[in-house]
Amino acid sequence: MSNVSDWNEAANELNAIVASFDEGDVSVDDLFSKLERATEIIEALEARLATTRAKVEELTPRIAKVAEGE
Amino acid sequence: MVTDTTSDDPVFEVGEFYQLITAHLEASFGRRRPHWVRGEIAKVYEKGHVYVDLVDAGSASSDTKRPVLNAHCWATPWAPLKRRLASEGVTLSAGMVVSFYGYVDVYAPQAKIGFSIVDIDVQGLLGDVARRRQELIERLRSEGLLERNKGTVLGPVPLRVGLVASQGTEGYQDFTGQLLNSPFSFDIVLVKTLVQGDAAPPQIVSAIKTLDKHGVDVICVVRGGGSKGDLACFDDERVARAIATSSTPVFTGIGHTGDESVADLVAHTRSITPTKLGEEIVAIVSSWYQGNVRTPSAHLLEVTADVLDEASEYLSERRRTMIFAVRDRLRAEERHLVSTRERLVIQGRHLIVSATQMLASSRQLLAAYDPKRRLAQGWSIVTDANGDVVTSLDDVTLGDAVRVLVSDGSFTSEVKAMERPSP
To answer: Residue A31 and residue B329: Cβ atoms within 8 Å?
Structure first.
């Protein structure tokens, strides 16, 4: 989760890396370091998403109880 | 001059005189000769027997000379009359115009000529009650009081409920049952009152005022079913005015289907029974809860799931894109290297071939100039003492020894003569 700040910022950085790949302006020297950074961001965001999902799962029955009017 | 009549006319004792009057009155107005008398009740008082002061309808109370009939109805005839009136929701009260059927009776100890009531024109009285009720409604309408309480604003979640009722009665149970069995936490502030009889209106008025000051969301006036008489207090002007002028919305649930009291008319909202009123209050809260809690909760769940799914999908897509992009990039690099290598090989080959060809032609060229071939053809090469090739007469002088190189060796010769051909 190192060096991955808030979601949007991280997603923007990730998008920029992907865009640079798409445009083909990544030198072979930079390829690995960029891929490594992108992987780091994806893993950090996935971990964050999993944590959020778990917390949501915990709250869902409580909200559902209200929504279904038990 | 005073006429002396004492000698001819009888002289009565007081008691005798009253007996004489009574006999005369009874002959025309007595028990056996009852009459109908119509008037407006100026005063009424009941204590076992009922005492009514009857005056001419419309006469002013300030008029000290207006005739007054002191009527009374003894307990025995009064009991059935009272029941009958009560069943119609009528209580004798000041201002009513009523016809009494009765007879004159004289009460000598107080020098009173009274009127003993044996019957009441109930139909006429009902007409009067209805008329007075209609007049009250018109009065309230003209003062804008029928609509006044309807203009008060009911808060969106009326959970603090002021209740004007008689605790423990059926109406009270029906109403509170609806609230307490609902899923909501109602806070019921009860002000106990009588809900029938003459003493009820002031208590109801006071209860409404107390609750209005208390700061509840709604005031509910509740009374179960009963006879018209039981419900008469809800046609009371004081009650109607208290409801109309309350700054808190007043809801009524009085009687059963079909009853409509003046209180119902001036209320913010009327329900036909206490049960229905309870349902109405619960429905208002329920509707708010549905719109502001339940529906948003369901929506919240959907949106949350959507956000998470989108985020998941986004990450998966980025991951795939990354893998493909890197793979493509590496492949492109590889392809580039391979083609470069191929180009180099082909160009190298060309280079070697052309170099070989160049060498071969050079070799041929060189072979043409090989001195040995010239020597074999009979040419020779002359060099001086220093070994330098002699190409001109100027390179030698007469007597110089020169060396002559031929195809198979050399010999030495001497310059003996020099001839220079003329141009």
So the answer is: yes
Residue span of the structural domain in which A31 resides: 7-67
CB contact under 8 Å between B318 and A38, yes or no, is yes
Q: Is residue B108 part of a domain?
A: yes
Are residues B250 and B200 in contact, defined by beta-carbon separation less than 8 angstroms?
A: no
Task: Supply the pTM of this predicted model.
Answer: 0.62
pLDDT in tens, B347-390: 989 989 999 999 999 888 888 778 888 888 888 899 998 989 99
Domain region containing B204:
148-287
Domain identity same for B152 and B272: yes
**Looking at beta carbons, which residues of chain B come within 8 Å of A63?**
297, 300-301
Structural domain count, chain A: 1
- Selecting from B290, B295, B315 the residue whose C-beta is nearest the C-beta of A49 gives B315
Q: Indicate whether B339 belongs to any domain.
A: no
- Tell me if chain B has a CB within 8 Å of the CB of A37: no
Q: Do the Cβ atoms of B332 and A60 come within 8 Å?
A: no
CA distance, residue A3 to nearest chain B CA (Å): 18
Domain annotation covers residue B182:
yes
Count of structural domains within chain B: 3
Q: Would the pLDDT of B1 be above 70?
A: no
> Is there a domain that residue B42 lies in?
yes
- Do B202 and B163 sit in the same domain of this protein? yes
How far off is chain B from A45, nearest CA to CA, in Å?
8
Span B308-323, average pLDDT: 91
